[in-house]
Write a structure and sequence with these properties.
The chain is an alpha/beta fold and about 160 residues long. It is built from 6 helices and 5 strands, in the order αβαβαααβββα.
Amino acid sequence: MDAALAALSQRVGDFLRERSLLLATAESCTGGWVAQIVTHTGGSSAWFERGFVTYSNDAKTEMLGVKPETLAAQGAVSEETAREMAAGALANSRAGVALAITGIAGPSGGSAEKPVGTVCFAWCRRGEPPRSERRHFEGDREAVRRQSALHALETLLAL
């Protein structure tokens, strides 16, 4: 793990510990990269509760309760789906805060409306509505995934 990711993990851990919060993650295009970043830090079991890697639509529905209607109407890469993923991570864990990531990392799979590099995020604290956003990242598959993981954790700290 490079120094920047390790430092970010430590900051996230300090942030969550200070607030007595546990984190759950719901990841699609990042394939568990956020969970890998946060579990790099020794003692992360004190603040990281669990991670869901829900790459397929069926997994999103079965594990997180994402509505099939949402997937049909909005697609897997949408703020609506990301919000349902984050809410589902909270509903299926003991965490007090969750983040979700769903996107198109490439090299294929994009469209004119949702080109490669399109990623949707959501953050949710128990008892509050999820917040979400859509971003676009440049670069190859690894670059999009890395930027997505970093953005999800940095925004968690900012919120």
